[in-house]
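ingest -> validate -> predict -> emit
validate: passed (alphabet ok, no gaps, 296 aa)
predict: started
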Amino acid sequence: MTTSHHHSLAEDIDAMLKLTSNRRQSMRWLFAGAAAAAAVPLVSCGGGSTASTGTSTTTTTSTGTTGTTGSTGTGTTASSATCSVIPEETGGPYPADGTNSSVSGVANALILAGIVRTDIRSSVAGASGTAAGVPMTVKLQLVNVSASCASLAGAAVYLWHCDRDGNYSLYSTGVTNQNYLRGVQEADSTGLVSFTTIFPGCYAGRMPHIHFEVYPSLAKATSAANRIKTSQFGFPTATLTEAYTATGYTASVRNLANISYATDNVFSDGTALQIAAVTGNISEGYVATLQVGVNA
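emit:
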């Protein structure tokens, strides 16, 4: 059946123009609505999302900075910061934080006069002696994982390690009267602590490493009972191989050849958060940098 209509050609054309206009207006409204929805920020509790990863916590949060990662060349994209709680590790047999004794009795470097310092290469509190070795600066960036990776300003770090011969001051034969390569630093407003030291040696049975404890404040960094984190970190294997070509590290070359991160009794369960980024060389010294995430 054919349906007829009584509109003129002019009326039909006018109706078609109105229909086209209405469709265009609808598309404008659609795109406007989508743009408005994209402009509304997503609100989340705590400023970031957290995910449990076994014994550690990972937090992702926007840093508010711009970068070129993921850019197609037409603009910049916001970068993001992630942080995780660094694994808890043993303080080892030579902590000198008052929790055990050496041949001279209870070893507690935390209460020594002058222990709060940046340069830890020499002994303090009346002891003489300076540890020889390739110069190194250690920079630890403290962040609070439970507060969206905020800088942990005002916290304190006690750091210690062996000398280039693999000996620990206050404990090892020949250096029990020394307290070098131990020191305490208060984090600055950005959560950074920095130590001037030497590249540690490799002794038999362990990958080269540095020990540290984190305290909530400098005032509380006088007793191990106040520590909120004890851990260790190591170095890239390529850096170790290069550093040990320096004078005085002959024994380290031999010991390193018999150990690996996979067989080390501390690092064998993973080193993702415990290998410092290292720049520099033997002649100019090294700079080792590591982010240390804690729940504070």
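The CA atoms of residues 181 and 288 lie 15 Å apart.
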